[in-house]
Amino acid sequence: MTQFADISRLSLNQATTQRWSLREAVEGCARAGIPAIGIWRDKLEAAGLDAAVRLVRDAGLRVSSLCRGGMFPAATAAERQARIDDNRRAIEHAAALGADVLVLVCGPAPGKEIQAARAMVADAVEQLIPFAAERGVRMGIEPLHPMYAGDRSVITTLAEALDEVERFGSPHVGVVIDTYHVWWDPYLFAQIGRAAGHILGFHVCDWLVPTPHMLLGRGMIGDGVIEFRPIRAAVEAAGYRGPIEVEIFNQAIWDMPGDVVLALMRERFVEYV
Amino acid sequence: MTQFADISRLSLNQATTQRWSLREAVEGCARAGIPAIGIWRDKLEAAGLDAAVRLVRDAGLRVSSLCRGGMFPAATAAERQARIDDNRRAIEHAAALGADVLVLVCGPAPGKEIQAARAMVADAVEQLIPFAAERGVRMGIEPLHPMYAGDRSVITTLAEALDEVERFGSPHVGVVIDTYHVWWDPYLFAQIGRAAGHILGFHVCDWLVPTPHMLLGRGMIGDGVIEFRPIRAAVEAAGYRGPIEVEIFNQAIWDMPGDVVLALMRERFVEYV
């Protein structure tokens, strides 16, 4: 088995190398032989869209995702409309980059009414479908760990995301599965099976025990308690054969030199994923 | 509506007043007119079982729960047996105290195999049922928030707990529902309905945004984003009419004088629950 074969599905999500600009991340992937990248919108803004498109094209990198759209619920109709408009821009950028998927982190409730916020998410995604379809962009609803239900996403489980996806019935809406967010789910494997045909992205990140920080305490693959292989096998059995992004929010990893992070990530990916 | 009527179902879970001994907590409840208490085993050990039984009886307090049994999964059969033996002691103490329920916090996996750990939980609870039945004790499986799946409980949702409870089919095993652990669940109300006849305890605690600490950052009722009234209504519609425990792990609350905490808890309970 060649080294290339081992990492042929590996993708660097830019959140793992937070200090790198888009140019630095693209060049880092090239040096490490990593064939794909997940791009964040703040890095894209800093680089400029046209420059970014050239960068990834010239490097021959596949853009596995654009992160992130979403953040739909808001207290007023005007603010909800502004969020939808922002997502239209994200869709345009995803189209320009040829990204496999626009990842949707759906957002928290503006107040205490979590069920009402879920309805706002459904309403916003439904409004965006024709726009995404025209531009050939697929949106992936990423259920986030329930510990983010109060500040990042009212969509908390794969089952819940699939309820929406099935209701929409559009090839332009699917799910993104991140091991960090779903590993605990007692119904995970049944839901991955149910997700067949709707999986638009697969992210890997470990769960540390103890978890040092609720946002920046995520773990390098192999440092935590998640068994990746059965989850990857289930995702593949459900038909997903696209890039596997390593997305790790972790201050200690951010403080390491990017090339060291990529080398470690490659090694752990081959060993554990 | 008299003040007594307002708080007639209120119970102080001792975890809310961590610095108080059992005697201090019992006396605090008496001063505040709180009619019930949830007792922790470390406080019970410190007080001595016989003294504790006299304390609560003399104060006329209802013991709404004993916290906690559980912690079942372990790497070896010998260690798993030791955990079961410890739970037998907890059952005996719950019987002596006349506690409404022994709360089970089921424990984390000893390694990475979360599904295997879930089977260990089911096996242990099943072994304990005859012992609990002989002593007239009911065990309540408390699903913990999924952010504790790695270090406190592999049982993470009400649905999962109910799967086990229905499988056992014993009146000596049910569920304990804590708003802090389940508020995010998209299927919460359906599962509370399903829990009818199996709810052995109901705890209230708020979810702070942002959450300052994963264990000690839980919120006083009204300080967070949880809507208590609809959850309480659903729990009552499912037939539960027992005590409602306020159980809050929060360093700032622990640092307040206990009488102040009880006064605040009473006020917020009446306003929000």
Top keywords for this entry?
homodimer; 273 residues; alpha/beta; TIM Barrel; two-stranded antiparallel sheet; 12 helices; 46% helix; 16% strand; globular
Description:
Two copies of one chain form a homodimer. The first copy, chain A, is of the alpha/beta class and 273 residues long. Chain A has twelve helices and ten strands. In chain A, the strands form two sheets. In chain A, strands 1-2-3-4-5-6-7-10 form an eight-stranded parallel barrel, surrounded by seven helices. In chain A, strand 5, helix 7 and strand 6 form a beta-alpha-beta unit. The mean pLDDT of chain A is 97.
Return residue spans of chain A where pLDDT drops below 50 for at least 5 consecutive residues: none
Strand neighbour order, sheet with most strands of chain A: 1-2-3-4-5-6-7-10
Order of helices and strands of chain A: HEHEHHEHEHEHEHHEEEHEHH
What's the β-strand tally of chain A?
10
The CATH class of chain A, by name, is Alpha Beta
Task: Write a brief caption for the model.
With 273 residues, chain A is of the alpha/beta class. Chain A contains twelve helices and ten strands.
Task: Write the topology of this structure.
Two copies of one chain form a homodimer.
Chain A: H1 3-6, E1 10-13, H2 22-32, E2 36-40, H3 41-47, H4 49-59, E3 62-70, H5 77-97, E4 102-105, H6 114-134, E5 139-141, H7 158-168, E6 173-178, H8 179-182, H9 188-194, E7 199-204, E8 206-207, E9 218-219, H10 228-237, E10 244-246, H11 251-254, H12 258-272
Helix pairs in contact in A: 2-4, 2-12, 5-6
